[in-house]
Amino acid sequence: MTDAPEALPPEDGALPEPTRCGFVALIGAPNAGKSTLINALVGAKVSIVSRKVQTTRSVVRGIALEGASQIIVVDTPGIFAPKRRLDRAMVTSAWGGAGDADLVALLVDARKGVDEEVEAILEKLGELKRPKVLILNKIDTIDRSRLLALAQDINARHPFRETFMISALTGDGVDKVRQSFAAMMKPGPWLYPEDQVSDAPLRILAAEITREKLFERLHDELPYQSTVETDQWKVMKDGSARVEQTIFVARESQRKIVLGKGGATIKAIGEMARKEIAEAAETKVHLFLFVKVRENWADDPERYREMGLEFPRG
Q1: Which residues does the annotated region (G3) include (predicted)?
Q2: Which of 6, 117, 182, 279 could form a disulfide with 69 if both were Cys (CB 3.0 to 4.6 A apart)?
Q3: Where in the chain is CATH 3.30.300.20?
Q4: Tens of pLDDT, residues 268-291
């Protein structure tokens, strides 16, 4: 009986790098570009992007890889002065996500600089006993001298471990951010498979995609009193998926806006959403959309559970 051959070391003689893993919470004011940045870091669409503010409602986790590091980037709702119950739930969720992370990254729109919302975040940031980095986004929109002055001003208010200057939209500086995040992660096993880009179930991601298309198509015509839920995700015999979703609006007049003349608007929304859902699911999708009026959906605890938010009492 012969001995089993010994495993050969890598040709270059180097030992494999130990794996690292951790959570990074992206926080900032609405429309700072958090969703665009998380998609750029992950290299795939995991969070919806809209020109409208406050479109990210629930905590979305994107999974980025850099060398031997797995970085779980948490895209939190924008932090702003809450007025409604839903607003309060979103802001509580954002700070909760930051408190649970290994690293907190504050994203600031360089064009806007330190406005009231950023100032309020900076004041509260000291309460978080976590390492923090500053990311100045949209650097292609202002000149370098203003950018350096802004970085200096923010660091004087709250010292950050590192400051990055990026354009999430063009990708400028994003690789450097990913590499730095990777180096800051703690040694440990990966929490997700190598090919997974998000922890959101497909039915949740599908609802978010349709909601994004609502914003894209209707712009300012439809206020924020709308939400989308995936009621059914049925895998058919041929491997395709039958997906049924309900768009909830607050009033009959809004239902008519979503449907459009002769159903033209809902058809266009459905077509755009179907393509992206099929891309995410990597299979053919048959999408069926329904529009229902639910006047007080923003006061219904069940809707909050669907979005992964805690229902604020009172």
Answers
A1: 75-78
A2: 182
A3: 202-307
A4: 999 999 998 888 788 899 999 999
